[in-house]
Amino acid sequence: MNSWKTLKSSYVYKTPFGNLRQDSCELPDGQIIEKYYVNEYADWVNAIVLTKEKKIVLVKQYRQAAQDFFLEIPAGKSEGNEAYEEAILREVREETGYTTEQKPLLLGEFYVNPATQTNKVITYLIVDAYKAFEQKLDPTEFIGVHLFDLNEMETMIASGEINQLFTVSAYYMSKIFLTK
Question: Which range of residues forms the domain containing residue 170?
Answer without folding.
Answer: 44-178
